[in-house]
Amino acid sequence: MRPAATSLQGRLGWRLGLLFLVVLAVGSIILFFSYRSDEDELAVERLLQFMADVTAGLETGADGQWDAKLPPEHEAFDLVIRDASGAVLLSSPPSAAARLGPVAADASGDNPQDGTGAQHRTMLGVFARFETAAGPVLVHVAEAESANPAREAGSIALEFVDEVVPILVPMVIAALVIGIFTIRDSLGPLATVAREAAAITPSESHRRLTQEGLPRELQPLVSAVNGALDRLDEGFRRQREFTADAAHELRTPLAVLAANLENLGDGGAMATLREDVARMGRLVGQLLSVAQLEVLAVAPDEIADLHALTVEVAESLAPLAVQQGKEIAVIGTDARVLVRGNAETLRQAIRNLAENAVQHTTLGTSVEIEVTAEPAIYVRDHGPGVPPALRDRVTRRFWRADRSKGEGSGLGLAIVKRIADAHRGRLEIDDAPGGGARFILRLPPA
Amino acid sequence: MRLLLIEDNARLASAVVLHLKSAGFTVDHIGLAADVPVALAAVRYDVIMLDLGLPDGDGMRLLEGMRSRGDGTPILILTARDGLEDRIKGLNAGADDYVLKPFAMGEVVARLKALLRRPGAALGRRLKSGNVELDTVNQAVEVSGRPLILRRRELALLELLLRRTGRVVGKNAIEESLYGFDEPATANSVETQMSRLRKKLEAADAAVSIHTVRGVGYLLTEDKPMK
């Protein structure tokens, strides 16, 4: 197995390159050996051819001038001509007479014969007897010492490489280019699939990967992934439904509990108990909100008026604030501030911010909500503020500044953040000028 | 005041009935939607509390049926679903207000009283908060039984606030009901009227307070009795 990170392109290049080298090597080796096995026959043929050339010269120059008519290729051969008594008439090169000893005068034919050179090298040679005007001569021809059959075969292989490389290299390059282009072309749609896959989140679990345009080889994979997503989506849906159902089912028993507590009269721990039940009721409502908001998708044509929503929220919270010795006010513009968004969830976001501010503002102070044309909503209180180190944390689910106090559900601000995200808006937290916390909900304009 | 409670959960119903009785209501309880028409034919109720999640019949259908027969009895719905749909549907079908379970009984009583203080409803003629009493027919105000003289607009203002005791009355609603098209409200005329009304109530030792909710409206609350 190649490492998983290797790309298809890399693998294709690697393998085609290997194929190229193998073809080159195998071709050269085959050529080398086939030339080498034919070498003996070829050599004999060459010797006979040379012999014929030499003897043709003998016939024409039958006047004892032996050295005058050597064919041009004589350097590749040892040539010794002796007379009937064995005396050397010609030796080319001069050292050849020593290597090619005298042969019996009655010997004839073209049988290869071992030379007796000091190098103990196997040599091919032929000799022949000719009748000339000066009497019979023995012509002895052998491969020159310098001729190396192996080198010759090697040079033929090299020649093959020289000839084949100019054809093979462009072909391999062309194959590579076509291969890489095919890979890129076929896998191009995968980039789209990757983008689609990146967009799948628990709240966007209904999304699927497109199979259109993908090579057939990849379709089973993508359709299997889509199948897996279907099953996950179903699981998510059941989980959400369970949370929503559980929250609904808890409401009625809580209502019974609350109503019975109120009938028990005041005194003792009664006030605390009632507060606890009210808090539980809020928690249940927020759990339900969280479950519902998971699938919140803002329709592109939904328009909401932030100012009207803020006034509504302030209207409904004012009695509670007054009862707690606090105030709530809507400041800034009186004009409509339209945003692209879902009125119901935006109301909930504003309400959670306002409730949070009323809870934290000091007794006798006021919570001010300002709606601006940015569009944004600034909710400021006159409480202790949120330390910078905690600002990221307060919007996490079930996070509370002080668990021992048992105030709030820890879901309110997480819900606001989720609503802001679903609207492509932002929730910011900073210090209000003059002290207290300031929560800013920014939304895209209509 | 006679109240009909339509609620299938017996435990919740008995707790609510107990509390409403102590708050001065005469309460009939029905657990099945099928029994409602009989009760409505026999008794004229001042206000009805209706659970939208009845098991044997849709509370919504009951509501629509009553309104289509021209029955204008104020209806407060109880719901366990706070989804936008249920609420809007209920209000569109003719409900006057809604409360979400679990509810505080004090809140329910306040809302019932607000419904009853509407013009034409059981408490709509004589509006009472704390020691302040306003007779809407004779346009007369009494604080602890002593008459309080108010100008026309101050009286109208007090009536609006008393009808919604404990709840905010919006600026716009006040401007619309106090001023006609021919005499548009100036920027601070409502504020001027309100501060005069406050002073007069204070001078008369009225046990109610008018709170300004800046940018929103005004809120009249009953002062808690001193202990």
Protein described:
The complex is a heterodimer of chains A (446) and B (227). Chain A has three domains: 11-150, Beta-Lactamase; 201-295, Helix Hairpins, CATH 1.10.287; 297-442, Histidine kinase-like ATPase, C-terminal domain (Heat Shock Protein 90), CATH 3.30.565.10. With 446 residues, chain A is of the alpha+beta class. Chain A has nine helices and eleven strands. In chain A, a hairpin with a 3-residue loop joins strand 8 (366-372) and strand 9. By secondary structure, chain B is α/β, with parallel strands linked by helices. Chain B folds into two domains: 2-116, 3-Layer(aba) Sandwich (Rossmann fold); 126-222, Winged helix-like DNA-binding domain superfamily/Winged helix DNA-binding domain (Arc Repressor Mutant, subunit A). Helix content of chain B is 38%, strand content 24%. Chain B is built from eight helices and twelve strands. In chain B, strands 2-1-3-4-5 form a five-stranded parallel β-sheet, with helices on both faces. In chain B, helix 6 crosses helix 8. The longest helix of chain B is centred in the last third of the chain and has 15 residues, at 189-203. Chain B is elongated, with a radius of gyration of 19 Å. Chain B starts with a strand and ends in a 5-residue tail after the last strand. The interface between A and B is large, with 39 and 33 residues.
What descriptive keywords fit this protein?
heterodimer; A: 446 residues; alpha+beta; Beta-Lactamase; Helix Hairpins; Heat Shock Protein 90; 3 domains; five-stranded mixed beta sheet; four-stranded antiparallel beta sheet; 9 helices; 50% helix; B: 227 residues; alpha/beta; Rossmann fold; Arc Repressor Mutant, subunit A; 2 domains; five-stranded parallel beta sheet; 12 strands; 38% helix; 24% strand; elongated
